[in-house]
Amino acid sequence: MQRLIGRITAGRPTLEGMSVSSAAPADPAPAHPATAERHRLGTPGLRRVNLALFAAGLSTFMSLYCVQALLPDMSRDFGVSPSRASLLVSLATGAVAVAVIPVSSLSERFGRTRVMLVSSVAATVVGLLLPLCPTFGALAAVRAVQGVALAGVPAVAMAYLADEVDPGSLGGAMGRYIAGTSLGGLLGRVIPGTLTDAVGWRWAVAAVALVVLASTVLFWALLPPSRFFRPSRIEHRALLDHLANRDLRGLYLIALVLMAGMVTVYNFLTYRLLAAPFHLPQAVVGLISVMYVGGSIGSARAGGLADRVGRRPVLLGALLMTAAGLALTLPPSLPLVGAGLLVFTVGFFAAHSVASGWVGARATTARAQASALYLCAYYLGSSVGGTAGGLAYEHSGWTGTGVYVLALVAVALVVTLDLNGRLLVKLRR
């Protein structure tokens, strides 16, 4: 990745507005450091930032979860179990978890926008190969490579926002970026899920790849240059400093357990709805991701609300909503399952929006690496926690899966109460 970025940016004008060499690539200093202002709510600059990162989140999460609604079809086509089929999601998210920290470090040297743009193009190209894979092993390998390529956008987007957006508008901007990711997760599931009965899973995945290509072009066209980024050495000690911060560690743990629960629900609810007592067709099951629309709205609203009333109460409310929604899915009633999934999804994305924005605000230095640690935990939760959820589903059905996810949300609630050490102080008294 580092060599590729250096080649692409060597000796030509870049989107950051300067010419660089491969020996000393860097984003420029702001043209008018004394007068430049960070993007604020209502300004054209922030609207452009929001649109660009909305498109980036859309394309990234469409690519990342385009196989999730197709897991039952792939289980059947390749003759593999549900837990093994879920590796097609876990390998991609696990690769993101592994790559996100080194890629974020590259952004400290090469610049936020440059890393995001290279990553988006590489991921788009790899995604076009998915429908051509002849075996499960080949498909799994390409998904892992795709995860590495995708890492650049989520690794850097939050740090870019923290650099360029006024602190008073950061929560709302982060919420709108998360809204793009939730809509991307929606389209990445709904498009292939509704097409697969008519054209098969390969053509369904190809359709997603074409939509991702269009979204990537939009991202390239809209992304404003960095104005407040200053290149710096890649300091790995910053990672240790962030891990030594009690509040940041808590936010990372929240990311891990929440994403483990989210991926578990969306991986295995499809199997439940295809089986007794529901027996829904695949095209209908694929539509469950429409609930992500609620997630898009919830994340944007939660980010703005956190700016006004504080992050802790909004995060606690979002987590309680997540738990309540999950509990509603336990009875074998389709209306309750639908309502519960909607509440669960809104709560999850609201919590993710607030927690991710909190990381950017809490870290005063090396923000890309602080955000990368959050995302490493987030995608590690998706990879490991999602696979563990498959074991819960195979052994105990949906009830056991629900108990597993509720336990994860409970951990997030306890950690949120303990941010800044408040809960432990009370317990010691």
From TrEMBL:
Cited Pfam families: MFS_1
Predominant place of localization: membrane
Transmembrane segments: 49-71, 83-103, 115-138, 144-162, 174-191, 203-223, 250-269, 281-302, 314-330, 336-360, 372-392, 398-419
Location in the cell: Cell membrane
Keyword field: Cell membrane, Membrane, Transmembrane, Transmembrane helix, Transport
Signal sequence segment: none
Location of region: Disordered: 17-40
Cited CDD domains: MFS_NepI_like
Domain Major facilitator superfamily (MFS) profile: start-end pairs: 45-424
Organism: Actinomadura miaoliensis
Family, per entry: Belongs to the major facilitator superfamily.
Protein name in UniProt: MFS transporter
